[in-house]
Amino acid sequence: MSTITTDILIIGAGLAGLSAANDLQQAGHQVLVVDKGRGLGGRLAGRRIGDATFDHGAQFMTAREPRFKAAMADWVATGVAEEWYSSYPGQPNGHPRYRGVPTMTAVAKHLAIELNIMRATRVVKVSHQQTGWLADLDNGDRVSAHKLLITSPVPQTLELLKGINIPADKQSRLERIEYESCIAVMAILDGPTAIAAPGAIALEKGPIAWISDNLQKGVSKIPAVTIHGSGEFSAEHLDHDRTQTGQQLIDAAAPYLGNAQVTEYQVHGWRYSKPSIVDPDPCLLLSDTTDLPPVAVAGDAFAGPRFEGAVLSGWAAARQLMDTDK
Ligand SMILES: Cc1cc2nc3c(=O)[nH]c(=O)nc-3n(C[C@H](O)[C@H](O)[C@H](O)COP(=O)(O)OP(=O)(O)OC[C@H]3O[C@@H](n4cnc5c(N)ncnc54)[C@H](O)[C@@H]3O)c2cc1C
């Protein structure tokens, strides 16, 4: 077993973790990010099946807050994002929707360029001493850090914090947070879909919430759709047979696929997809009224249940952790 020492440990290389890491590093802190996933970006997920490519997590991003708008402009200028559409059939005057280029994960990869990240490494336990945090990793190593930021979906964060004496009011705020599930089907087709430009459909009723045509979107070079089950359907089917559940969603998508037939498909279940009950603060500093070393939690459950919210939450957590030095 070896112990890695860092100033700040961030659990999670999703948008919140990567955004916080950049701000902290730019302010001169030594930061280590650890993520259990092989890829970067958490719920910004892409997958290849043969010649087909899919965004199977977040589908697009919107930008409202000034600093985030500036970041988006920078990503567009750098070529890792572009406007996908600002209106589609049924929603003529929408807000601009941006997509990652070539896939949504491009933004995460861009945010990760300067960072020190351990991938495919799960933090299995956190504990603390008087002056800092210890994180046990699933490879047997340990990280010792002065400060800790946890950005996993909150139920997973609560698991990690078991045994840590956090204030009761903050514990109950964390326990209130809830997420929708989402079953995502990635299906390769033998021809084009019947979905009109720009290649996306959001549905209000039935088992499907969203279908995107990855060929029209510019993500895939061959016809390929991502189908997202609705929150209700996904919660009910999350632990069912994935192949059967995927087929149910494909059958329900038939009117949008036109004459195209599915030649192959894979299914991914997101247990924590988008938060349905969020906390009003942009992040939570758990240590401020305690003897705990600095520890904060962040993610899309705090500053809003989407891409932008996760980034804003990461930035807010970075500020809060820097302020603990004052
Ligand atoms: C199917 C789906 C569709 C969506 N569509 C949209 C959309 O169209 N527009 C939009 O704006 N948003 C959308 N979202 C939401 C958006 O993806 C999230 O709001 C955002 O990506 C959350 O970022 P985050 O950093 O808070 O969390 P995450 O991306 O979940 O990052 C947390 C990271 O922590 C890691 N982790 C967890 N536990 C541990 C551990 N013990 N040790 C190490 N690492 C750990 C995980 O691997 C993960 O990478 C969608 C999400 C899903 C799932």
Architecture overview:
By secondary structure, this protein is an alpha+beta fold. It has 2 domains: 3-38 and 119-177 and 279-323, FAD/NAD(P)-binding domain; 48-60 and 87-98 and 181-270, Polyamine Oxidase, Chain A, domain 2. The chain has helices at residues 15-26, 66-78, 105-111, 154-160, 168-176, 214-217, 231-237, 242-252, 254-257, 300-303, 307-323, and strands at residues 3-11, 31-34, 46-49, 52-55, 81-85, 97-100, 117-118, 123-128, 133-137, 142-150, 178-179, 182-189, 200-202, 208-213, 224-229, 262-270, 275-277, 284-285, 295-297. Strands 1, 2, 7, 8, 9, 10, 18 and 19 form an 8-stranded mixed beta sheet that branches. A 5-stranded antiparallel beta sheet has the order 13-14-15-12-16. A two-stranded antiparallel sheet has the order 3-4. Helix 1 packs parallel to helix 11 (307-323). The chain is globular, with a radius of gyration of 20 Å. The two termini are 34 Å apart. The site of flavin-adenine dinucleotide has 38 residues, from helix 1, helix 4, strand 12 and helix 11.
